[in-house]
Design goal:
Family: Belongs to the AB hydrolase superfamily.
Protein name: Alpha/beta hydrolase
CATH class of the largest domain: Alpha Beta
Low-confidence stretches: none
Helix content: 40-55%
InterPro entries: AB_hydrolase_fold, FrsA_esterase, Hydrolase_4
Number of strands: 8
Number of domains: 2
Distance between the termini: 80 Å
Keywords: Hydrolase
Radius of gyration: 22 Å
GO molecular function, one term: carboxylic ester hydrolase activity
Strand order of the largest sheet: 1-2-4-3-5-6-7-8
Oligomer: single chain
Number of helices: 15
CATH topology of the largest domain: Rossmann fold
């Protein structure tokens, strides 16, 4: 009220509501009422696995809630990705926030294409946009760079995460049949923080290498991995080299380590002794064939039979760490112990997370610390 007795109206402070679906119950009855693809997506991509691939926890909760509410997996993930991208380009957003939002948006787009079993135009477009947003974030942050390496089989794409401070070693990090280079950037960050250059690689059959350049798994896949090691070796001649493989990538990492004497340390996080022995039916087998650019079982299996993690090669001195989840629904305890027992390596160790799921996504920070600390110690030991 003014001195003259007049009433002054004060505008209330603005209130902005950010609407979220919120966590939903996931009872058996709720799941049974959903479409088969939605059930499969929620079963295959648990909250831990989804966040393990770089999806923000809140985004993963929202994604599951929307699918439980009846929305299909792909459209739910893409809608969330677009909303996050709009926030990244909003007024008043600092560069630090924009970087984080672009990476969140990229991870959601990558998650959106997970349930597409073959390489459709829609899938290629989704993944290309995910890579573009990841690249925007990388340019803003200045903490990694996209690398394209020419090989006889076609280009291979990776993301180089340079060491923070003085680099003491270099590593190649690879994913598996479903999770690829960008999905494992938490390992890249962990290696960087420990003074190790990390090349997050999409090998033949993976990620941008496959979806943008049509470079699939063939019997000559080792040449592409060798080219990646050449790249790291040329950047820092004489610096010790290692390789880390996640999921089926663990089988590739071991098979390559035995064939290349430059590799001094190898980590298998979720591989199996005989990838070609996966039952020849179901969606995972279809994804394995797509990895090879074919729908023909025998042609695909011929390529997978060359991934031989237990075969002896010229390199018998490398050190091996097997990381295993005791609750892994895909890799049995017996398979993990077979890799440990029969690997043609100079030194072998295994760490088991008793309640760990596949690739130990549910202990991601501890897993990454274990892998990166172990690798640094083995590569720098005199």
């Amino acid at each position: 009220m003014t001195a003259q007795g007049e009433v002054t109206l004060v505008e209330p402070p603005p209130v902005v509501n950010r609407e979220h679906t919120g966590r939903r119950a996931e009872t058996e009855a709720d799941l049974a009422a959903l479409a088969p693809e939605a059930q499969a997506a929620l079963r295959q991509f648990s909250l831990d696995r989804t966040t393990g691939y770089g999806v923000d926890h809140a985004d993963a909760v929202e994604l599951r809630a929307r699918v439980l509410g009846g929305q299909d997996w792909q459209s739910a993930a893409v809608e969330l990705a677009e909303a996050t991208a709009r926030r990244a380009d909003g007024d008043g957003v600092t560069p630090t926030t924009r970087i984080a939002l672009l990476r969140r948006s990229s991870a959601l787009l990558r998650m959106g294409q997970m349930m597409i079993l073959t390489d459709t135009d829609d899938r290629r477009a989704l993944f290309a946009e995910a890579a573009q947003r990841y690249a925007r974030a990388a340019e803003l942050a200045g903490d990694r760079e996209r690398v394209v390496l020419d090989t006889e089989g076609g280009p291979v794409v990776g993301w180089l995460v340079p060491a923070t401070g003085v680099a003491v070693a270099s590593v190649v990090v690879i994913g598996g049949v479903e999770g690829w280079a960008m999905d494992f950037d938490s390992l890249g960050d962990a290696f960087s923080a420990r003074g190790i250059d990390a090349l997050l690689l999409d090998g033949p059959g993976q990620g941008e290498t496959r979806l943008s350049h049509h470079h699939y798994l063939t019997a000559d896949w080792r040449a592409a991995y060798s080219r990646a090691v050449d790249f790291l070796d040329a950047r820092a001649p004489g610096r010790p080299l290692g390789i880390v493989g996640n999921s089926m990538g663990g089988s590739f990492a071991m098979a390559f380590a035995a064939a290349d004497q430059r590799i001094r340390a190898c980590v298998d996080n979720g591989g199996i002794p005989a990838p070609w022995a996966v039952p020849p039916s179901g969606t995972f087998f279809t994804k394995m064939l797509t990895f090879c650019g074919t729908g023909e079982a025998e042609r695909g299996l011929a390529a997978w039979r060359t991934v031989t993690p237990l075969a002896r090669g010229v390199n018998t001195d490398y050190r091996l760490l097997v990381v295993h989840g005791g609750a892994d629904p895909l890799v049995t305890d017996d398979w993990a112990r077979e890799l440990l027992r029969d690997a043609p390596a100079g030194g072998r160790e295994m760490v088991v997370f008793s309640d760990g799921d596949h690739c130990v996504y549910n202990h991601r920070n501890d897993r990454d610390a274990l892998i990166t600390d172990w690798t640094r110690q083995r590569l720098t030991a005199r």
